Amino acid sequence: MKKNLWRNTVRLRKMSTPQPGGPPLITLDQVAKIRRRLPLTPEETLYALALSADLLERLIRRLDRPLSRARNNETRLGWNRMKQRLEAHRRRLRRQMRRMGEPKVQVRPTQAQVSETSWSHLFALYERLIDGTKDVRLRAVLLEIWGETAIGHGWLASWAVDVGDLDPDLVR
Amino acid sequence: MNGWPAFLTASLAGSALSLLLATLILWRGGRLLLNFLADRTMNILLTDPYRHNLWEFISASRRSGPQLLIENSMRAATGEVIKRPMGSPKPSPQFEAISFTPAQVNRAAAPGITDLSVVIGPKAGRPLTLPIPIVIGGMGYGVGITREVWSALLGGATAMGTVVNTGEGTVSLEDVRAAGGRFILQWGRTHWAKQPDLLLACSGVEIHFGQGSSAGMGIHIPPEELKDARTHMKLGPREWGRIGERFPGVRGIADLGRMVSQLREASGGAPIGGKISPGDDIEACLDTLLQCGADFITIDGAQAGTKGSEPIIEDDFGLPTFFALCRARHYFETRRVNGVSLIVSGGLATPGHFLKAIALGATAVAIGTPALYAVTHGQLQRALPFEPPTELVLMTGRRTGAFDPVEGARALAMYLKSCVDEMAMGIRAMGKASLKEVSSADLFALDPEVARVAGIRYAGDVRADLYRRNRSRGRRPGTGPQRGARWRERS
Q1: Residue scoring higher pLDDT (B485 or A62)
Q2: Of A1, A2, A3, A6, which to mutate for an interface test with B (greatest number of B Cβ within 10 Å)?
Q3: Which of A88, A98, B190, B280 has its CA 20 to 30 A from that of B304?
């Protein structure tokens, strides 16, 4: 048997995992909340805005097909409203980018160009969109696009943690 | 009975009148009184001989410094070795004597987002990738700081995607998992924090050989200082916490190499490193660690802080961080060492220091004291003015219950975000898009000795290699600028 340098010196009673002195003092939710409230630099804001606008454009394009195939008027009307809402949101994002003097930021930024903090704000924005969508099929489309983007950027693991609100006041 | 209201009214009126009179006297005569006292004091200070003059105390304290005056009094009062928290107060000006070259005419400053990610132990089975080049240095729960403060460090580091070192203290996996955090397990000369599941869960193992502020010394921690951590460290109610001077069973390089292999196996391929307090034999220490197969080496310079160490160790031992880093880089270059990361700590306090350390060859920096200052932001008033701020964070503190870990975590995350954004600005100002592009070639020194040690250019040397000396080269004879006496006259 291989000589184990630390087991020999440590009594067995000490090998059991110690129990914490109380409940954890910091939780995932609190960490996520802290991350959401971290300020974004103007550059990070621009990339987050560019990526959000890109996501919305892809979503709007993908809505066209099921919209034309919707069987009843009610569904069509609901989806149309959703599309208008998303378009208005995209216009707002583009307007904010223009206001910041950089209307043509690269729409597919690399992983390094979207910082952890930008992602947490972006996740928050998208989650708000998904939460506000009652239609099951539309939610599925939203989740699918979000998943594609998150996998594409290698950030899917963080998705579960980072939820919150994009606060334009945080732009320094 | 009927006279009572009149008596009370008269008493109140009398008191009010007395108060008014006293105020008036002070109002009118206060200046005179103060003037008289000031005149008298000045007269004594300016005319009395030194043997009767209070100024002698000020003069003496200027010679030795208030630090020595107070520490000597502490020694005289207790007769014990004093333990000074937060490291040596000795200044270390080398990092201040270095500057970066900005990009402007020949190359522009870089726009956009800067990539600050680093990899610790790239050759390890599961290398540690960090989005920022700052890790939280070893501060142990139980042996130094409280669980609340360690949790705050964990929360702040996790919010920024980086890791926190467990120090020589104990750690609870429940706490780490609840925060979704990552940690570097410090493998100390202790019997606690040695559980196999900790090894499997950690992102790296740092074997603690020494640290800048306490060298390789072991310590005895009395039970009353361990408080609630005592049960967590599996110590009896009267048992002292003991950190030894040597690893049991390790007698040479072969044993050390075996320990590194076993830790690597037990941790499932996590990067294994060693933390040293550098001295003049730093090259020998690095050589041994590399022979043992270390994936990273942490150099904790002499300016490092601690919860409390002996002034002789803090002030008179060890190589300052700057010299240690430069010598380590030189050793790595001459021995062509690749794939071994260098973490540097000790006295690095500003984003400029962090970036300079990385430009000089460090892979990442570890911070301790600045992180502690950050977690106490907004909470200092809970200890001040009657207690020092360390009373909030250290196990020995009397105000530890007043510390809020969530608030501390938020403040640390903000501090780290501010630091990395400032570092990114610095990198962009050099015209670079990534931390990996920054090197010692971007630096110059304001002091020739610093330039020599760091192997960088001195600010006073002319860069003749950067411009064309003879601008008339290639022109036809006689068309170039006039030279000689006539040219001087025209000038």
Answers
A1: A62
A2: A6
A3: B190
